[in-house]
Amino acid sequence: MRKICFISxxxxxxxxxxxxxxxxxxxxxxxxxxxxxxxxxxxxxxxTVDIIEKDGFTINARIPLMMDDDxxxxxxxxxxxxxxxxxxxxxxxxxxxxxxxxxRHEILAAVLAAHVAGIPVAHHSGGDVTTGAYDDALRHCIxxxxxxHFVSCEASRRRVLQMGEHPDHVFLVGGLGIENIVGTTLxxxxxxxxxxxxxxxxxxxxxxxxxxxxxxxxxxDQVTNLIDALRQMPDLGxxxxxxxxxxxxxxxAKTIEDFVSKRENSILVTSLGELRYxxxxxxxxGVVGNSxxxxxxxxxxxxxxxxxxxxxxxxxxxxxxxxxxxxxMSIHRGLEKLFSAEFRALSRTTSNPYDHGVASxxxxxxxKKMTKKQIxxxxxxxxxxxxxxxxxx
Length: 393
Description:
By secondary structure, the chain is of the alpha/beta class. 42% of the residues lie in helices and 15% in strands. α9 (219-231) crosses α13 (328-338).
């Protein structure tokens, strides 16, 4: 039995990885381990460890983090705490392979702990680009520590190869969230209205807005531009979900909370959970904000998406996505386009560039074939750049 340990720190990465986790748990020759941290253990982010356990998974390690400070120093302290905690957890669990997804700072800390312990890492979502967030560099750091790379699209595969990774260890499997849409019976409008204090009559939007961490614009200014644009459309019903734990997230959450408290048919939900999130997205008129889900998963619902600012700049795009600058006028114009008959018709014909079949099935087939001997000593694969060789550097 080879032990594969999955690291999860938020509702987002768990929702994407859970189908792979399920397939590992069902494989006769694989042993599933789960280590959780971050927002899963914090009530401000929904204490989503309860969802994992409700889904029938056993948690093998819990690494609580200090999450009371969203300043740069606070985030650095969180990373230090995560690295120590994961170092201790991995020493106890002794997995044969660590499986991680994405670009969170606490995930990088776990990967570094595994790297110095000699535990190979499999990484999903390497090669993606999000120039508006410092997560971009963190994701590339994870790639350089990882032995196996499961990428979501062709452009990401090329970038991982460009970073010197061996082609035999780079696998184009597609986005993990798409099969959650295709293989799930979504909740009805009536069921959601019974569950949420919200009415879907009239026009409505699902809004998720995270801090843009690579910008001179303050978190307060970022979210205020969005709020001011939404104020110009007072009849819209709005369902907000909470931002991730990044620098400036507390200020954004407080601003949204104040806004919805004074507006009819507007709510802030700490965590909708995967099923409710996709079900709400399927019913509302569009998805707004700067979340990766709007880029990677929502196009499979063929819904219009308004993407604000540069947080997701660099990712592959479907035709149903409207990109706007983070200023009130641009956001307002983007909302008008989102509700236009022409763009809504276009969205119903869109295709998702991250759809490459059932990603979890693609991954489990590869995981079952992996051996320690196959990994060997990781080497940097040089690319040929003749134009550089001809110059005196």
